[in-house]
Amino acid sequence: MLYESLPYYSYRDYLTQRYGESLFRVPIDLELGCPNRRPDGSGGCTFCPENGARAIQTLDAKGTEAQLEAGIAFAKKRYNAHRFMLYIQAYTGTFASVIEQKKRYSELLQAYPFDAISIGTRPDCLFGTTLNYLKELNETLDVYVELGVQTIHNKTLEHINRQHDWQSSLDAIAALKAHNIKVCAHIIVGLPGEDREHYLQTIQTLAPLGLDGIKIHNLHIIKNTQLAKEYLARPFAVMNEHEYAEILIELIRYLPPNLPLMRFATDTPEKEIIAPKWQMSKGQFSDYVTEQMNLRGYRQGDLFEAGNEEPQLPMPNVFECKDGSYTIWNEMFRDYYHPRSGARAQGSELFVAGASLRERLKKGPVRLLDIGFGMGYNSLLACEAARSTALHALEIHAVDQDRNAILQSANTVKNIPGEKLAWPQILKTLHKNSIYASEYFNITLHNSDVRYALAQQKGTFDVIFLDPFIERSNCRMVTLELFEHLKKILKDDGVLIYSGINTASLSAMADAGFCLMAAGRPKSDIRGIVAKHTGPSLKYHTIVPYRDPHGVWTDRKIRQYREQEIKKQKC
Question: Cα–Cα distances in Å, from 213 out to 16, 322, 358, 438, 464?
């Protein structure tokens, strides 16, 4: 993990606060079945597999005793677990007479000293006798009921064959709360026919209901389900890691800050999934969400109540460069953003001059893609050029995942003497609204992972600025695949300006088909590359480039893959 503190309230933190340490779940399938299935096991919700989404660690265990042993052994070995929660997981945990429920639950609770019990069930399977029993059980140990809500939209519930409406879920939540039983809701993001507005409506409707936990996960299309048949007959969009992370982060921001987030990814075995085929593991995805939320300064609940203020950022370590500009220390990468010669000098001599930006603006409008916006100097100097030229408009699309740096920069950068642009105000507006517009230029900030941001871009660009800061640490920004994409969206007479002379990056650019020339000041710390579609190209020692074939690998995995390829070449 890149950060010690999480930007959301994890279920592990909740359990630790309540019990002194985390409780580990022991999933059990009591084979109680489901009221939504026929006696032969057919039917059911369109997304649900035949095994009722039984836990991986108990798939091969026969009988509850074997499941219990397998679940406890798994948690002890993998997590060094000491205390446990019984989890009635598969199918519908309350789909039986209350007499049968008492018998089955009691047998399990007597077999091991559990601290709590969690029961997965449906909103339409919580009758009065069951509620009374659970209230009685709750007097001796904590009882949690995990309710399959999935969505608040009745049209979707009908489509996925839930056989209950949203009112059933609302009534079940109210009944559980009235019996003083903790209730957790499950929802699925990406159900057929739903989009961002549907997910937000579901979260915003559930948020004020006083839930004790929430599970969110993206839709998995699992083999041998009705949904799989629908998908194979007429494929519909499913979310990759970046797409799901973007909507998930927004949903988390609308949750109450004290609502435990139980999970936001699931453990369906790879061999069972038709789509989506992810490359990130569950742990890598969790780290990615944490990274992105922290970089953007987002926290769970910061959109739950209107008027929430942005978190106060610590003042960064500021360094004055030789040209009188200021740069700041990046604590994550342990380095300053700019060379000693200066942020303005680099922006002016390498990026603006290397792109012949003023000459381009004299001829017509310019579309500029600024990847690695950072403190904003390169784009702001480009805006200065557009204002001083005062002939044609400059349209900038700026990409950076570190939103915090923009606000820190607003308190650091200074206007160029004699110029009229209010740089700090531009940066503050971008930080707040992601858009700044004026007569001769406009900037749109895309605050996300570069690969997701590029996937959202439309059209081509006259100029591309690429400043990866520290190439090895941000190698997702310098892969062969990224340069191939940039070549496709760069106009025939366009130019890419790259801040760096790393041979791996040069190799990736050349392999992508770019012609490369040196730019900046020779024998100084302001050096880079001008890349074009055609023209002469400098000579350099070719080495193995960074690769990201699926467009979602972490920086660490990209580095590891390259190291493996280098070893293969040496063998």
Answer: 14, 54, 56, 46, 45
d(CA 304, CA 326): 36
Q: Which residues pair with 87 in a beta bridge?
A: 27, 118
Q: Where are the domains of the chain?
A: 11-296, 318-564
pLDDT at position 95: 76
Burial class of residue 293 in the structure, from the number of CB atoms within 10 Å of its CB (0-12 exposed, 13-18 middle, 19+ buried): buried
Taking the C-alpha atoms of residue 264 and residue 244, their distance in angstroms, rounded to an integer, is 10
Determine the Cα angle at 366 with ends 375 and 363, to 5°. 135
DSSP code of 311? Answer: P
User: Mean pLDDT over residues 399-426, rounded?
Assistant: 81
Q: How many CB atoms within 10 Å of residue 2?
A: 10
Tell me which residue of 319, 345, 457 sits closest to 396, measured CA to CA: 457
Residue 101 contacts residue 94 (beta carbons within 8 Å): yes
CB atoms closer than 10 angstroms to residue 509: 26
Residue 163: which of 264, 48, 274, 51 has the closest Cα?
48
In a 3-state reduction of DSSP, which class is residue 160? coil
Query: What's the CATH number of domain 318-564, 3.40.50.150, 3.30.470.30, 3.30.200.20, 1.20.1070.10?
Result: 3.40.50.150
Tell me which CATH code domain 11-296 carries.
Answer: 3.20.20.70
Q: Where does 19-98 show beta strands of DSSP type E?
A: 24-28, 84-88
Share of the chain above pLDDT 70, in %: 93
pLDDT category of residue 419 using cuts at 50, 70 and 90: low
Would you give the end-to-end CA distance of the chain in angstroms?
33
- Mean pLDDT, residues 33-61: 66
Residue 333 has which token pair? 């990468």
Query: Is residue 437 very low, low, confident or very high in pLDDT (cuts 50, 70, 90)?
Result: very high
pLDDT at 1: 38
pLDDT of residue 337: 87
Between 523 and 358, the higher pLDDT residue = 358
- 79-126 pLDDT, tens digit each: 888 899 999 886 677 777 888 889 988 999 999 899 999 999 999 989
In whole angstroms, what is the distance from residue 127 CA to residue 145 CA? 13
Please give the helix or strand (H or E) that residue 562 lies within, else none: helix 555-570
Say if residue 52's pLDDT is above 50: no
Indicate the pLDDT class of residue 3, thresholds 50, 70 and 90. very low
Q: Whole-prediction pTM value?
A: 0.91
Contacts of 474 (CB under 8 A, 6+ apart): 372, 468, 555
384 neighbors 478 (Cβ within 8 angstroms): no
Q: Which residues contact 363 (CB under 8 A, 6 or more apart)?
A: 392
- Which DSSP string corresponds to 445-509? EE-S-HHHHHHH--S-EEEEEE--SSTTTTGGGS-HHHHHHHHHHEEEEEEEEES---HHHHHHH
